[in-house]
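hiii, so i know i said id send this last week but things got crazy w the move. better late than never?? heres the sequnce for the chain we talked about at the cafe, plus the structure i predicted for it. fair warning i was half asleep when i ran it
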Amino acid sequence: MGVYLFPFTSATKLHFFLGGFLHFITGDDIQGIGDCVLYTGPIDQFFEYSLGWLEYHGLRFEEEVRNEPDYQGQAIKDCPDEEPPCRIIEHRHFTGAVGKKTVITREYGEEWIPGRGRYHPVEDERNRALHKQYLELAKAQHPNFVFGGRMGEHRDYTMAETIAAALKKVKELTDHS
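okay and structure toks below
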C-alpha cells in the first residue's frame, strides 16, 4: 500500500511528498493519487469551509531582545499568574546559542479570527459535531484520505499525544493494507 503525506497550504494547492520529489497538484488532480493519503491540515479548509469554520483559540506574540545572556534559564516558561497570563519562550535554549543578548517571545491567548493562524482547536460540542460532518463528507468524497494530526482531527493534542496518535494511525493503516 502506498501512503502519501502532505500538508495543506492553500485552498487550491496541495503539496505532498511522492517518490522522493515534491509535486504540486491543484483542483481535482487529487483523485487517484494513491491507495491512502494522510492529510494533516485543517479538514474544514480542505473542503473550502463548505460546512462552516471549525474554531480555534488565537494567539498573539510579542518579541523582545534583552540585554542579558539568559533571561529565564529554560526554553519555555508558563506564567499563569501574570496579567494577562502568558507563555515565555527563550529561543537560545533550543539551539544552545551563547551571547551577550537573548531573544524572548511572549505568547498571549486571544480570540481567534477566521483566516488567522490556527493554534489550539476548540473542542466543544459544536466543533465535535461539525468535525464529524466533515469526516462523513471525506468518507463519501475521498475514501482513500485519512485526516490526522491536530488540524485534521481537530484535537488540541500535546506533542506526546500527537506522536502517540500518529503511531496509532500508522498501525491502523498498515494493519488494514
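btw Residues 1-27 have pLDDT under 50 and may be disordered. thought thatd interest u
miss u guys!!
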